[in-house]
């Protein structure tokens, strides 16, 4: 698969990246290089290989899933310019 200038411009537009017209050939070349690397990865036989979370074997840390308020109210409100009754106090904006 090869990326042409029109496709590179479309990808840049979708990514909301302003790419000048003269830079499109270099961008298309980079996309083609990336696709070449992906094609190389597709050649690797991975049958029977389990997905990993890390290159070293380890178990994910697990904790009990408990709902709590986090006991952080005082720490969070200490940064507030104005706090009342355990909440942020903000000026009224709607009358």
TrEMBL record:
The keyword RNA-binding does not apply. The keyword Translocase does not apply. InterPro entries: Asp/Glu-ADT_sf_sub_c, GatC. GO terms for molecular function: asparaginyl-tRNA synthase (glutamine-hydrolyzing) activity; ATP binding; glutaminyl-tRNA synthase (glutamine-hydrolyzing) activity; transferase activity. It comes from the Bacteria. It catalyses: L-aspartyl-tRNA(Asn) + L-glutamine + ATP + H2O = L-asparaginyl-tRNA(Asn) + L-glutamate + ADP + phosphate + 2 H(+); L-glutamyl-tRNA(Gln) + L-glutamine + ATP + H2O = L-glutaminyl-tRNA(Gln) + L-glutamate + ADP + phosphate + H(+). GO terms for biological process: glutaminyl-tRNAGln biosynthesis via transamidation; regulation of translational fidelity; translation. It is an enzyme of class 6 (ligase). Its EC number is 6.3.5.-. Keywords: ATP-binding, Ligase, Nucleotide-binding, Protein biosynthesis, Transferase. It holds the Pfam family GatC. Coiled coil: none annotated. Heterotrimer of A, B and C subunits. Belongs to the GatC family. Allows the formation of correctly charged Asn-tRNA(Asn) or Gln-tRNA(Gln) through the transamidation of misacylated Asp-tRNA(Asn) or Glu-tRNA(Gln) in organisms which lack either or both of asparaginyl-tRNA or glutaminyl-tRNA synthetases. The reaction takes place in the presence of glutamine and ATP through an activated phospho-Asp-tRNA(Asn) or phospho-Glu-tRNA(Gln). This is Aspartyl/glutamyl-tRNA(Asn/Gln) amidotransferase subunit C. It comes from Roseovarius mucosus.
């Amino acid at each position: 698969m090869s990326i042409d200038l029109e496709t590179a411009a479309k990808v840049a537009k979708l990514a909301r990246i302003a790419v000048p017209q003269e830079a499109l050939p270099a961008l298309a070349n980079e996309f083609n290089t990336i696709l070449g690397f992906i094609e190389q990865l597709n050649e690797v036989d991975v049958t029977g290989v389990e997905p990993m979370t890390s290159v070293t074997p380890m178990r994910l840390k697990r904790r009990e899933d408990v709902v709590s308020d986090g006991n952080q109210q005082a720490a969070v409100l200490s940064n507030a310019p104005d706090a009342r009754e355990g909440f942020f106090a903000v000026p009224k904006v709607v009358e």
